[in-house]
Design brief:
The protein has one domain (18-450): Hydantoin permease. It is 75% helix and 0% strand. It contains 19 helices and no strands. The structure holds 4-fluoro-L-phenylalanine.
Amino acid sequence: MAASHSTHPRSNFTGRIGFVLATAGSAVGLGNIWRFPYLAAKYGGGIFLLVYILLVISFGFALVLTETALGRKTGKSAIEAFDALSHKWRGIGWLHSIVPVLILPYYSVIGGWVTKYFVEFLLGRGAQTAAGDYFTAYISQPASPVLWFLVFFGATYIVIMCGVEKGIEKVSKILMPLLVVLSIGIAAYSVTRPGAWEGVKYYLLPDFSKFSPNTLLAAMGQMFYSLSLSMGILITYGSYMRKDIALDSSVRQVELFDTGIAVVAGLMIIPAVFAYSGGDQSALQAGPSLMFITLPKVFASMGIGTAVGIAFFLLVLFAALTSSISLMEAVVSIVNDKTSWGREKSCAVTAVVTILLGIPSSLGFGLWSGITPLNMTILDFFDFITNSILMPIAALGTCFFVAKVIGVKTIIDEVKISSPFKGEKMFVVCIKYLAPVCIAAILVSSVLQSLGVFAL
Ligand code: PFF
């Protein structure tokens, strides 16, 4: 066992709804609204959706359940949780813990851009964000993006300072229902635009001829991103879960929430872009710039574009905020468990590190654009290191840890404390065989891509 432990009593979510909404808040983020629609558009629409859903209910479920159970069983955050079960393999916990430290800063930089766009639309200046190179010109400025990064991160900081129950749980209970209402409202408006129906069909009807191994790889990578896997978050949130709350059905609800919002986000964006571009599919290939460059143009072309733009960026802001809250909580609880500094000091230290790493990520698009590790911008570099390298390695480590070190029974027993375990056999197959093979494939493909061997 590790020598240092927090002497502060551990906080808890008050009940099942608190856990489900906070964990769904973590899962539903920029990944659902910004990343999922452009990947779905790029990798064949309906077929991507089908593959994604199959992955989420099979090995996605197994991994989310495992991490949450590890947290609940030990009542600890990542490092201490692995350490408590096997001191020898505590390094896997360290891997999980580095990830949120590196993601939180750049995620908050993107959160800052979202906040800026929301404010622009709110002030009635949304149309100007649709102009030519507004986005690229904006993110390359030295001061304003850093300022909005600090505003966004400041909001995250305040919630975390308020604690698990009064901060995270309360904010999730307010923002998550609002997020559902906003996304359904925008999707309903989007699919009823003239010309949008073709987009709905492209998005929802699987065309099996569009399937390729890349569809599978992209869907797997997205699943990791979207479910907040291998970044210490689920272990931490699991450690705040009461023993009487059913683990397996709570995890299913979180997945349903996360996938539901991703699917609805696709319905907001793909049909609207289809209608705007007159059915030209290449407009959907915009990739990451779909949200910041293409969508403002789509909003500008709509009759009530300003109102839709305000609602849309508010939705993205809520989603990003609940996710950055979970990223920061993961870091703070790791620091606190390791040092016993208490919440305030752990928050302050986390904030300093986040600001120090976030500023270069922001400046990397302008003043520091000459710094290009692995030929990437600083932000993309952090994204690559975490999502493509560290997270798959940490996930492989978790599968190994469960299958070979502590045994699948440890997780199964933890689940059975609160309810019968539906899907137990499937869980064992996934964690022992399916997940390791798929994760190894993601890892190899991302390394090959980064070396330029092939493009996904
Ligand atoms: N799951 C959240 C999202 O989809 O945005 C949070 C998150 C995932 C943040 C992955 C960052 C990240 F790299």
